[in-house]
């Protein structure tokens, strides 16, 4: 909002029309308007500039009249009472108690037509009521009296937890604020560090409690302590008993509009004071000029029904100036003035001169955290056990101060592991410090408005007195230890979170450094951006009710119970209830998952966890290896052993683990699944068939798995198996890998119905498809990466046979590699969105440069610690990249992944021809062949043995008699290329397949010629296909149909989620397309990447055509509903069945419907299309769907050089497979010219054949 160009004569508008200042010489003529009309639900804020020279204050009003219809001359001196007499004006003076230099006034227009006033973020009540909420009105300000100027400023934002949940949550928050707000000063103090470092002792020292020599060990997280201190007092902290909630009733909830009598009296007093001041000015003027005073004119003295203000001066002394008398005032002055004003004027004139000066209370601008404010610290003490790390990281919050505690008398570089657990990682103190600081960075880091990083982290060393016997030696040792920590932290990514200096304290004695550290914590807490945030009073009351329930022993409640509580507090809108619960969930006060699309979320939506500590204890019973059932007569100890040794949790054991909360077992299981801590195990064949008596549900719990030290004994790595890595750039916590294992298990079960072959804490093997498995292996904790291995499976039993077969088999399918990679990146994207917003990762491949490693001085060293990597996205986008040592060709890496989709060849690539009719000279008899084909053929003809046209023909699967036919031509390479392309459908797909085999022959020169030709012919695709990876095969079929109809398509076939290079390509494709087809499946609706594509298309106003590939709820739940709910989808799953014309015919009808819908937005390119008869269409369908499996079986059985076997089965439909009946060489569209016009053309169908048919 800005100020209008129409304003009062005393007003000057500056700073891009955001500042309006009244002249010092006047107290009126200060009317200004907003530059546009605003509606209900809008809020605006102004900052005041004041003077003490006048009486009266700002007036604020609203009008339905466009100020553009006024001229400056039309505006009165005073808004009151002039505009009050006009229609569609609502004006209210602001009390002088609410104005002062630098004060911020915020106004919120409610949907009920009320205007709520906030002064320095404190709610003062309703300023106006009864405005027409369905109309838009202009804002009017009368810069009057002691208000000298106003500046439009940005209103304070809602808490970022509210803002992050969208506009609907912000509106619910602002609506709640209309009932009153209160600043809240509260944060958490998180104590982290190794076991036995002195965290609990430090907590006691900060609280001023007597030190304890023997301190009990913390389990999980200790939430039990809260304390309070007065800001600026530097007094000891006082411990708060029980669960603390901010008081909500400190603010008087008075309505400005309801206090009409007090405001009206203030208004009358201001008018009376200004009349008296006017009389004194007249007296002084007459005394100075020694002239007989003339009575003031009616126009100058008439003050109507306004608080007319005049400039105040020092009251005249009784000796120098006699008091004016009431009888001296012209009666015209009191015309249209209320009787109460007349009474007040007479009272002021009868009073002594000293009392006639208006006394004003000195008011200071409220600060965000005043010195007298009460700050509350909730102290959380984190246990230092590895099994708790996964749970603890769920409770890390940006609204906290963190203190890392370590022992000064311990070697900071010595690796110390927990001897109780052989599989626990051994970390030194410095490595443990690095782990926690990276955890805080990944889970909580944010940048505040002052460009400082939040949350702050303190480093404190304990046991200072153990470093020496005298003060000098202790001081020297402390400097050495803290210097060692400082040197370790130099250059780390989290250094901007650290607060210096570091502290060295002694917990067990009175230490002055404890007091100094306590003051430092107080100062840091006051600087946090969320301190002093305005929280709706009725929300604070709700927090008090929750605190009472906790103190009464309630750990959870139903959503209906929460709604009943909120109803008593005046919170009736479901949107506000949901927003409030999610806000306190983000703050860690309670746990509520009210947004989600899965069945688990439906369960969690109806339950609110009131006590996070209770939930932590319940989860700890499942994850902690320390806890054991207490019942010595427990008869299910075999199930407990299975959980300990294999990480399989059987449902009967839960009744023992959760014996205190058995009725909440579905809720707790849902939370375990929500947190990715467990997933259901599929029953074995014997269990599903009921052969095992008493079968119950069971779950995988990766956190309970044991570590495998010899991973090589678990699988046999073959020469052709494909390996790539996910690099986490220095931080991969074990809890993250466990979450990945949980999600991967679910995904493998969904796509193949198989449980993992084996699972350990650091490695697991999963089913991918009938031909492939894949492994995930977490490298050493110091390497921070995950190794991914794609394997072709064999049925042999022994390791030696398996290794021999593996080496003889072709490499895994590129489609399989891309499928695993896409899942991992999607999985990590979801985890980052939900849990670890600043986790960094990239997919890399081992560099093949075979350089000499520095550690072992060995060329091409394969030790995991000696490997160096290339970014996979860069390798897939470029043929040559640079590693740290030399230039590297990427063909050896790119061949394992699908080629990126390229456009350019759509429609017929070559003219129709018959090889027999060319009389052995294709170049002469077919002169209109493209130049790139001739150039490619020339290179193949001159190629060396093993890389020439003959080798390519064999690689493509041609038999010797066909190769002899090509050899009879004067240009055999050209004859081969033309035959392959035309026989393969004469489309760009045949050229794409050709480039695959050229790369296998290492003919990058020929591939480059083809690629340049594509780039020259390439134009923007008309259709962008947005889809989720699992439906790729169906989308490829749709793409094929659209391109046959003349609509060029863009779709990613192997790299979705593949980094910035692909994102740029997707952005370019969406911007240049004419329409977007979104292929809707249940997984499509939950994909963050698909959501981004759809949002960009909607933002660019691209036509969106939804095509339902799998049955999905409509409109899809979540953010996509906003885009898709108004669109009509085409259901590809509603084809075939009873009463239909067959699946194929129904599918063709759906394709025609899609094409018809596309035709409304773009036109097909028909110049490249060839006419196709219905019979040919049927044959094309037969080729693509019925003969694919037969061809694959034949090629596998005859092992044609391994070339076609290595192609992914899902990509084989690129090569059209003809009817197997024809065996003769290829003759395309050979029609007898002498046939009768009405002769049957059915026989012409079988003469069009592709190369695969000839091979067979």
From TrEMBL:
GO terms for molecular function: ATP binding; kinase activity; zinc ion binding. It is an enzyme of class 2 (transferase). Residues 284-325 are annotated as: Disordered. Residues 180-528 form the Roc domain. Residues 306-322 have a biased composition (Low complexity). Pfam families: COR-A (PF16095), Death (PF00531), Neuralized (PF07177), Roc (PF08477), TIR_2 (PF13676). InterPro entries: B30.2/SPRY_sf, COR-A, DEATH-like_dom_sf, Death_dom, NHR_dom, P-loop_NTPase, ROC, TIR_dom. It comes from the Eukaryota. Its EC number is 2.7.11.1. Residues 1-155 form the NHR domain. Keywords: ATP-binding, Kinase, Metal-binding, Nucleotide-binding, Repeat, Transferase, Zinc, Zinc-finger. Residues 946-1014 form the Death domain. GO terms for biological process: signal transduction. The keyword Transferase applies. It catalyses: L-threonyl-[protein] + ATP = O-phospho-L-threonyl-[protein] + ADP + H(+); L-seryl-[protein] + ATP = O-phospho-L-seryl-[protein] + ADP + H(+). PANTHER family: PTHR47508:SF4, SAM DOMAIN-CONTAINING PROTEIN-RELATED. This is non-specific serine/threonine protein kinase. It comes from Dreissena polymorpha (Zebra mussel).
């Amino acid at each position: 909002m800005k100020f209008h160009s129409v304003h009062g004569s005393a007003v000057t508008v500056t700073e891009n029309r955001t500042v309006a200042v009244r002249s010092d010489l006047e107290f009126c003529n200060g009317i200004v308007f907003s530059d546009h009309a605003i509606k209900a639900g809008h809020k605006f804020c102004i900052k005041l500039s004041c003077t003490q020279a006048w009486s009266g204050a700002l007036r604020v009003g609203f009008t339905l009249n466009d100020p553009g219809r006024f001229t400056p001359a039309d505006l009165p001196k005073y808004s009151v009472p002039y505009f009050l007499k006009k229609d569609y004006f609502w004006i209210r003076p602001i009390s002088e108690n609410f104005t002062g230099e630098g004060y911020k006034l915020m106004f919120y227009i409610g949907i009920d037509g009320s205007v709520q006033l906030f002064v320095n973020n404190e709610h003062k009540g309703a300023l106006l009521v009864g405005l027409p909420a369905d109309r838009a009105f202009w804002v009017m300000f009368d810069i009057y009296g002691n208000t000298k100027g106003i500046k439009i400023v940005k209103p304070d934002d809602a808490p970022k937890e509210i803002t992050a949940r969208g506009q609907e949550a912000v509106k619910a928050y602002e609506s709640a604020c209309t009932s009153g707000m209160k600043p809240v000063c509260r944060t958490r103090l998180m104590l982290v560090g190794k076991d036995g470092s002195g965290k609990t002792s430090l907590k006691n020292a900060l609280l001023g409690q007597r030190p304890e020599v023997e301190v009990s060990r913390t389990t999980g997280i200790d939430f039990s302590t809260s304390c309070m201190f007065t800001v600026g007092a530097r007094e000891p902290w006082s411990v708060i008993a029980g669960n603390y909630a901010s008081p909500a009733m400190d603010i008087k909830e008075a309505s400005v509009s309801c206090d009409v009598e007090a405001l009206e009296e203030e208004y009358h007093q201001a008018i009376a004071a200004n009349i008296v001041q006017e009389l004194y000015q007249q007296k002084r003027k007459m005394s100075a000029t020694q002239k007989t005073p003339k009575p003031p004119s009616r126009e100058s003295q008439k003050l109507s029904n306004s608080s007319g203000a005049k400039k105040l001066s020092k009251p005249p002394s009784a000796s120098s100036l006699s008091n004016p008398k009431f009888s001296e005032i012209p009666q015209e002055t009191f015309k249209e003035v209320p009787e109460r004003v007349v009474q007040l004027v007479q009272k002021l004139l009868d009073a002594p001169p000293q009392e006639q000066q208006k006394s004003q209370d000195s008011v200071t601008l409220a600060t965000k955290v005043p010195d007298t404010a009460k700050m509350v610290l909730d102290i959380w003490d984190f246990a230092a056990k590895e099994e708790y790390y996964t749970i603890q990281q769920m409770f890390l919050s940006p609204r906290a101060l963190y203190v890392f505690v370590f022992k000064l008398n311990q070697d900071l570089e010595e690796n110390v592991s927990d001897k109780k657990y052989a599989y626990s990682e051994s970390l030194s103190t410095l490595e443990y410090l690095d782990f926690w600081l990276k955890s805080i960075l990944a889970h909580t880091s944010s940048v505040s408005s002052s460009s400082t990083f939040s949350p702050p982290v303190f480093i404190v060393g304990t046991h200072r007195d153990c470093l020496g016997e005298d003060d000098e030696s202790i001081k020297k040792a402390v400097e050495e230890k803290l210097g060692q920590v400082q040197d370790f932290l130099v250059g780390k990514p989290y250094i901007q979170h650290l607060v210096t200096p570091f502290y060295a304290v002694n917990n067990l004695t009175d230490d002055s450094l404890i007091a100094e550290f306590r003051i430092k914590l107080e100062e840091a807490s006051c600087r946090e951006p969320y301190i002093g945030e305005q929280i709706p009073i009725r929300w604070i009351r709700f927090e008090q009710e929750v605190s009472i329930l906790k103190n009464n022993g309630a750990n959870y409640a139903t959503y209906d119970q929460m709604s009943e509580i909120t109803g008593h507090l005046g919170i009736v809108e479901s949107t506000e209830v949901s927003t409030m619960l999610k806000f306190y969930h983000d703050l860690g006060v309670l746990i509520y998952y009210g947004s989600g699309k899965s069945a688990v979320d439906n369960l969690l939506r109806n339950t609110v966890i009131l006590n996070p500590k209770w939930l932590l204890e319940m989860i700890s019973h499942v994850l902690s290896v320390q806890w054991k059932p207490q019942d010595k007569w427990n008869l299910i100890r075999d199930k407990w052993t299975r959980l300990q040794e294999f990480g399989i949790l059987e449902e009967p054991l839960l009744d023992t683990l959760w014996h205190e909360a058995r009725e909440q077992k579905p809720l707790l299981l849902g939370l375990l699944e929500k947190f990715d801590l467990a997933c259901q195990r599929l029953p074995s064949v014997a269990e599903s068939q009921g052969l095992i008596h008493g079968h119950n549900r069971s779950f995988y719990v990766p956190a309970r798995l044991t570590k495998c030290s010899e991973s090589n004994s678990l699988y046999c790595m073959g020469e052709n198996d494909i390996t790539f890595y996910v690099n986490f750039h220095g931080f991969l916590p074990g809890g993250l890998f466990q979450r990945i294992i949980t999600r991967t298990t679910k995904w493998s079960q969904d796509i193949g119905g198989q449980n993992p072959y084996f699972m350990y804490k650091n490695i697991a093997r999963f089913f991918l498809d009938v031909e492939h498995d894949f492994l995930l292996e977490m490298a050493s904790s110091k390497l921070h990466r995950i190794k991914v291995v794609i394997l072709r499976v064999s049925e042999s039993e022994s390791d030696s046979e398996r290794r021999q077969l593996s080496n003889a088999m072709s490499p895994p399918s590129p489609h399989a590699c891309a499928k695993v990679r896409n899942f991992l990146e999607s999985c990590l994207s979801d985890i980052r969105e939900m849990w670890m917003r600043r986790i960094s990762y990239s997919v890399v491949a081992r560099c093949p440069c075979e350089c000499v490693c520095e550690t072992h001085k060995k060329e091409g060293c394969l030790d995991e610690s000696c490997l160096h990597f290339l970014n996979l996205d860069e390798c897939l986008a470029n043929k040559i990249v640079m590693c740290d040592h030399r230039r590297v060709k990427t063909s050896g890496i790119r061949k394992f992944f699908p080629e990126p989709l390229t456009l350019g060849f759509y429609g017929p690539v070559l003219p129709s021809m018959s090889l027999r009719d060319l009389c052995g000279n294709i170049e002469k008899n077919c002169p209109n062949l493209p130049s790139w084909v001739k150039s490619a053929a020339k290179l193949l003809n001159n190629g060396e043995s093993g890389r020439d046209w003959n080798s390519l023909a064999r690689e493509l699967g041609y038999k010797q008699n066909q190769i002899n036919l090509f050899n009879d031509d004067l240009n055999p390479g050209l004859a081969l290329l033309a035959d392959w392309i035309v026989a393969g459908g004469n489309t760009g797909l045949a050229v794409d397949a050709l480039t695959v085999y050229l790369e296998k022959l290492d003919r990058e020169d020929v591939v480059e010629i083809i690629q340049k030709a594509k780039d020259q012919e390439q134009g923007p695709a008309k259709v962008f296909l947005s889809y989720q990876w699992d439906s790729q095969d169906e989308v490829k079929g749709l793409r094929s149909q659209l391109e046959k109809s003349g609509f060029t398509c863009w779709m990613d076939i192997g790299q979705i989620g593949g980094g910035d290079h692909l994102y740029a390509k997707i952005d370019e494709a969406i911007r240049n397309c004419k329409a977007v087809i979104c292929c809707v499946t249940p997984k499509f609706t939950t994909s963050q990447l698909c959501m981004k594509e759809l949002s960009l298309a909607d933002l660019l106003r691209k036509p969106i055509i939804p095509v339902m590939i799998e049955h999905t709820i409509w409109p899809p739940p979540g953010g996509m509903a906003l885009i898709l709910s108004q669109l009509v989808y085409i259901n590809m799953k509603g084809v075939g069945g009873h009463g239909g014309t067959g699946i194929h015919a129904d599918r063709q009808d759906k394709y025609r419907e899609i094409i018809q819908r596309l035709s409304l937005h773009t036109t097909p390119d028909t110049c490249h299309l060839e006419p196709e008869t219905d019979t040919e269409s049927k044959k094309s369908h037969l080729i693509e769907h019925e003969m694919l499996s037969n061809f694959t079986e034949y090629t596998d059985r005859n092992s044609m050089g391994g070339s076609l076997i290595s192609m992914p089965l899902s990509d084989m439909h690129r090569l059209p497979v003809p009817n197997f009946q024809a065996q003769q060489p290829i003759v395309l569209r050979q029609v007898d010219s002498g046939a009768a016009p009405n002769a049957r053309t059915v026989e012409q169908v079988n003469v069009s054949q592709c190369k695969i048919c000839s091979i067979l």
